[in-house]
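hiii, so i know i said id send this last week but things got crazy w the move. better late than never?? heres the sequnce for the chain we talked about at the cafe, plus the structure i predicted for it. fair warning i was half asleep when i ran it
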Amino acid sequence: MANHKLSVMSVEQPKPGHTPLWPFLQVLVWFTGVFIIFNLIVYPTLGINIFWNILVPILPAILVLAIGVWRNVCPMASTTLFLRHVGLSKRRKLTISQSGKLNLIAVIALFLIVPLRHAIFNTNGQATALLIISLGLTGAIAGLFYDWKSAWCSGLCPIYPVEKLYAIGNKLSITNAHCHKCYSCIIPCPDSTPGINPLSLEKKSYHNMAGVLLAGGFPGFIWGWFQVPDYAGITGIEQLVSIYKLPLAGLLVTMVLFTVLKQFVGKNVLMAIFSAAAVSCYYWFRLPELFGFGIYPGDGMLVDLSGVLPEWIVYVVVLVIIVFFYGWFIYHKQTKSWLIRPDYVNKKNDLLHRHKTAAIIDKDQ
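okay and structure toks below
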């Protein structure tokens, strides 16, 4: 009987006042993910269109405009945190160094996985499904051993570095739908620390390497990625080299530029410019591609409007979007936390978290 009570008490209880809308949306989005995986396996053409040509193209805009919504409903997060919600996680803590190593691995994984879209994932629904399932299982294992969002959502997830880059201009803090109490699982908490960005911990070696790679290299990486056509599988080493060559070359060029400019330009201004450049470069190429105006006809196309719309209309729309993004990043008055921090589990955690966050996060403007 005592063990039963302990098990029940270990399950995280919702904080009074939390709306049931978020659990509903989490379940809805999670089953949408299952639906997408099903289609990727059984109806791969449909699944590829839904995932790569609808969901993924709108994700950068969501990360820029509503990062808190995404952090609340991300199906990978729901999968990872399920064991913690039901009290089965071992709840181990990560050190700052371990967290930095996971962040660096996440950035490297991003740069290794994305070029493979050209050779495998963009044209192979089953391979894409296997990729999603593998990432989900990795997240679940991370959640089994480590507390809350520390190991996956704020560590190994390849999307997390992009979240930190694109969400630096966040203007909306909403309720944290997963964490009803703060257990200080990771310091500083990316969800609850205003102004978090890829270089927030630049004085920590692994965080600094991950931050410079992502913040500096991502615009060039995106540019290079769009200069490569899709292939129907990897047929040789030359093809493998070709899918990595231009993205990594672009990454190197803009990373060096970022490193040089960092000596003369304020960090926050430079971060805003490079964040805007990354998301703008993505939509400059991706939107025309979606509607049949891409560099490589047919690649990444959702619907062919090339015979219906003049090409200049598409690029006018893209230019308007780019101007908006630059304004959003560069002229924001105040950066808010992604989510509202819940109450600490006790006052000791409150003081400890505040002290450690103040001690390690770089506050330079």
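btw Residues 21-360 form one domain. thought thatd interest u
miss u guys!!
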